[in-house]
Amino acid sequence: MPEEKLAKFRGKFLPEKSYKGTEPGDKRFRIGGYGTQPESHAAFAAMVTLIDKQVGEVIAKLKELGLDKNTIVMFSSDNGPHLEGGGDPDYFNSNGPLKGYKRDLYEGGIRVPMIAWWPGKITPGSTTNHISAFWDVMPTFAELAGIAPPDNIQGISFLPSLLGKEGQKEHDYLYWEFHEQGGKQAVRMGKWKGVKLNASTDSLNQGQIELYDLSTDIGEENNLAAENPELVEKIRAVMKKEHVPSDIFKFEYEMKK
């Protein structure tokens, strides 16, 4: 982080958090390992401010070139806040009411902001409750370009939602899996969310599934699995169906067979 950016926030987010990472001369310096950052809080604030400024510069340049009304700009993130490299999401309340961080399949790990800007097309200040995921971006861009998306994909264009039009198709469910930390699976089905931990050791696929009603429990605090056994088994069936073993992505129990 440039010193002139960092200096504006030095001493304003105390107590500071120091992170010991790689140093100049270390084998992994700037090729994968996080660098040492003795002022992680100030650095975070500086980075957020810098990206806000740079996004503003992009928008200003589009307007200057007369391209703003013919350009759609989308801003998002690939995961929830992380703990690596001195990250301190609890200090900044980065997740708000959400549970978990990057690498979790609770909402705090996978629910992210999605902002779209297209003057004259997207109504300013509008929002949508449409449930979507990153695999929907490509078919959305394909529809914008007037071309057909590839066959056999799971993505659904969300262009109708962007434009405030009718006819938006919905997912029957969304599925995630993660292969570290014991293996995790999650399914979003309407207002319901199922989360399964320790999937790597559950070779019989009979492990406990947590169930949350996101319409009333966005923080995933009240596990309703015991009261909804049929729904839990429906979610379990989706998890079993959607997990496809491969040479690269497989749960530990599959590797032991």
Describe the structure.
This protein has 257 residues and is an alpha+beta fold. The protein folds into two domains: 3-126 and 148-163, no CATH class; 174-256, Arylsulfatase, C-terminal domain (2-Layer Sandwich), CATH 3.30.1120.10. The protein has eight helices and six strands. It has a four-stranded antiparallel beta sheet, covered by helices on one side. Strand 3 (174-178) and strand 4 (184-189) form a beta hairpin. The longest helix is centred in the first third of the chain and has 25 residues, at 40-64. The radius of gyration is 21 Å and the shape is globular.
For the secondary structure, the number of strands is 6
- Intertermini distance: 48 Å
Query: Which percent range describes the beta-strand content?
Result: 5-15%
Strand order of the largest sheet: 3-4-5-6
**Mean pLDDT reading:** 92
The helix count comes to: 8
Q: What can be said about the biggest beta sheet? A: 4 strands, antiparallel
Radius of gyration: 21 Å
Topology of this structure?
Elements lengths: L2 H4 L33 H25 L8 E4 L12 H4 L14 H4 L3 E4 L19 H9 L13 H5 L10 E5 L5 E6 L2 E5 L12 E5 L15 H14 L9 H5 L1
Antiparallel strand pairs: 1-2, 3-4, 4-5, 5-6
Supply database-style keywords.
single chain; alpha+beta; Arylsulfatase, C-terminal domain; 2 domains; 8 helices; 11% strand; globular
Summarize the structure.
The chain is an alpha+beta fold. It has helices at residues 3-6, 40-64, 89-92, 107-110, 137-145, 159-163, 229-242, 252-256; strands spanning 73-76, 114-117, 174-178, 184-189, 192-196, 209-213.
